[in-house]
Amino acid sequence: MKTLLAGMMLAISVAPTIAAPYRTPVPATFESKGEDRQAIEGLLDNYTKAVSTKDQALFESLLLDKAIPFTGVPLLGKSGDLTVKTANYEDFRKGVFEGEPFTQNFEDIHIKQDGTLAQVSLVFVNTTSTDKSWGWKTMELVKVGGKWKIAAEFFTGHN
Predict the structure, then answer these.
(1) Looking at the 3D structure of the chain, how many domains does it have?
(2) DSSP tag of 74
(3) Cα gap 24→22, rounded to integer Å
(4) What is the pLDDT of residue 22?
(5) Burial category of 108 from C-beta neighbours within 10 Å (exposed 0-12, middle 13-18, buried 19 and up)
(6) 9 domain residue, yes or no
(7) Is 116 inside a domain boundary?
(8) Which positions fall inside the DUF4440 domain (predicted)?
(9) Residue 105 belongs to what domain range?
């Protein structure tokens, strides 16, 4: 009888927890606002400044570390090999900081955030003295020590 009574008490005490609504409601939007949005926009400004002026030290200060997932994603029909390798910062670094000079601008920027995690999606436009290219980019950001850092980046590219 004690076992039956204990089981009933446990069921009664757990039932409100299971049936209760979330303690923190799901937000209507994840749009970043206020100081965090301004800080993320500052990171994006420093990103374009760093790649446009070949300031590798500034660029690397924006990264969580150099081993983050960082790669261009092949487009269907553009490459026979659609293998995506994610640890390609070194390839990116060589192309940007040792390659032909270009200016980069960001357009159509969307910033979503939940606490110390943010996601940015945008269109980037690269302009050289003779050519223009563009692509779509997504970045995962984390706030560490009060500063936003790039934790992952994936992008496409079009000529």
Answers:
(1) 1
(2) P
(3) 5
(4) 77
(5) exposed
(6) no
(7) yes
(8) 41-150
(9) 30-155
pLDDT at 17 over 60: no
> Can you say whether the dihedral through the CA atoms of 30, 51, 61, 83 is positive or negative?
positive
Phi, then psi, of 16 in degrees rounded to 5: -65, -30
CATH number at residue 66: 3.10.450.50
pLDDT digits (tens, 9 = 90+) for 26-80: 999 999 999 999 999 999 999 999 999 999 999 999 999 999 988 888 765 555 5
Task: Please say whether the beta carbons of 28 and 136 come within 8 A.
Answer: no
The answer for residues whose C-beta is within 8 angstroms of residue 36's C-beta and 6 or more apart is 113, 118, 143, 148
Residues 6+ apart with CB under 8 A from 95: none
Rounded mean pLDDT of 124-152?
A: 96
Assess if residue 18 is contained within a domain: no
Q: Is residue 17 part of a domain?
A: no
